[in-house]
Specification:
By secondary structure, this protein is of the alpha+beta class. The chain folds into two domains: 2-135, no CATH class; 196-409, Heat Shock Protein 90 (2-Layer Sandwich). It is built from 13 helices and five strands. It has a five-stranded mixed β-sheet, covered by helices on one side. The longest helix has 87 residues, at 137-223. The two termini are 56 Å apart.
Length: 413
């Protein structure tokens, strides 16, 4: 109920003001010593008809019009301003001008129109109260200063203060709403970025480990000397393949397909590449590593990206070209670090690895995002001999240059 009444407070105030101003307007219409209508009434023949006309005109009609204009003052202040000027000319009644100036100053921001109406009403007030026949010069000056302050200046200042305060509150509310919307957008962006980061971490860590497990199980299944060991390896390989399929569905839910930003990278760096190669060699892959140039340290983000390029390339080779030799080349240049991972065509069914494990579909996409994040380039495609090659060029920025950038990448694995 309170909210319902509060929403209608302006309308209630207008009705109260219209009813309250009605008797005041009627009262100040009759004793006016000046005004155009007062001179016309004085020349009219005396009697009951004349008094009845004065009562109807000055006591009912004109005050009723003013009350009607008060009800419209928030939507259309023009009628109230016009009636204020008309009553000032007709009966020298200054009461309507008080609420007219206040209403326009409080609810409208047209300074030129407000100045014009203030000047008109002030001039009419001076004419009909300052140079009337019953006023002396000193009395007229004192009366103009005192009454002009009450009827012109004070309502104008009060209206301007109320209008300015209302605009300030409205601006503050709009600003608070805008900040709230921006906070919601930032929160949503953070959620999307975190979901994408989780998806990438799962792909980089879990998917690669499970892929290696599946490949190990496939090799054990082929080389096992007894049937029980082969069955156990087959079960491990099948379970791993199912886990990769489920993981692919999870990645599809978590990953934002429209996102072009790459979140932070995990912890492994260039020094961990040799350990990665040993793991794949232990799984039966033939991996050859070649290093050219002078090895040096890079920014942590660049080294992590380089590690992920090699990891993804080896995983893809193990999935799609089982048994094929793989060559990993690291070229340390003066301005960039070039990484090339290539594999020969698959050895076919004779490799004994079975069908490749399912792919999540986001490996190369994630690599491109990571490489783009550090300002590098990535190219992947088939070789003329039927093999596959991944080439990444990363900027060789010193580690100190990206300390502030990599400070956000510490939440890796």
């Amino acid at each position: 109920m309170w909210g319902r009444w509060w929403g209608r407070r302006h309308r209630i105030v207008d009705w109260v003001a219209a009813c309250a101003y009605f008797p005041f307007v009627a009262l100040f219409n009759f004793p006016s010593p000046s005004g155009v209508l007062s001179y016309l009434v004085q020349g009219a023949p005396p009697g009951i008809p004349t008094q009845l006309v004065m009562i109807v005109l000055f006591g009912i009609a004109l005050p009723g019009l003013v009350s009607w204009a008060i009800l419209l003052r928030r939507r259309n202040p023009g009628p109230l301003l016009v009636l204020a000027a008309v009553l000032m000319v007709a009966t020298a009644n200054f009461v309507p001008s008080v609420i007219a100036l206040y209403s326009y100053a409080a609810w409208y921001s047209d300074a030129r129109r407000l100045s014009g109406w203030t000047g008109v009403l002030a001039a009419l007030f001076v004419v009909f109260y300052g140079i009337g026949p019953s006023n002396t010069a000193a009395g007229a000056a004192l009366f103009i200063v005192f009454m002009g302050t009450l009827t012109i200046a004070l309502p104008l200042v009060a209206g301007l203060w109320v209008g300015t305060r209302r605009q300030l509150i409205a601006n503050l509310q709009e600003r608070a709403q805008r900040l709230e919307r921006e906070q919601h957008l930032m929160a949503n962006r953070a959620i999307v970025a975190e979901r994408t980061r989780i998806a990438r971490e799962m792909h980089d860590v879990v998917a690669h480990r499970v892929s290696m497990m599946v490949l190990h199980a496939g090799g054990l299944e082929i080389s096992a000397s007894d049937r029980a060991t082969a069955d156990t390896a087959s079960l491990i390989r099948s379970t791993g393949r199912e886990a990769l399929s489920e993981l692919r569905g999870i990645l599809g839910v978590l990953r934002d397909e429209n996102s072009t930003e790459a979140p932070t990278a995990p912890q492994p760096v260039l020094d961990d590449i040799e350990r990665l190669l040993d793991e794949w060699r232990a799984a039966g892959m033939s991996v050859e590593k070649q290093v050219t140039g002078t090895p040096c340290s890079f920014a942590a983000q660049v080294e992590r990206t380089a590690y992920r390029v090699v990891q993804e390339a080896l995983t893809n080779a193990g999935k799609h070209a089982p048994g094929a030799p793989v060559a990993v080349r690291l070229d340390y240049g003066s301005e960039d670090l070039e990484i090339v991972v290539s594999n020969e065509p698959s050895a076919g069914e004779g490799s004994g690895r079975g069908s490749p494990p399912p792919s999540s579909g986001f490996g190369l996409t994630g690599l491109r995002e990571r490489v783009a994040l550090v300002g590098g380039t990535l190219a992947a495609g088939a070789d003329p001999d039927g093999g596959w090659r991944i080439r990444a060029v990363l900027p060789a920025a010193p580690a100190a240059d990206q300390d502030t950038t990599t400070s956000n990448d510490d939440g890796g694995e």
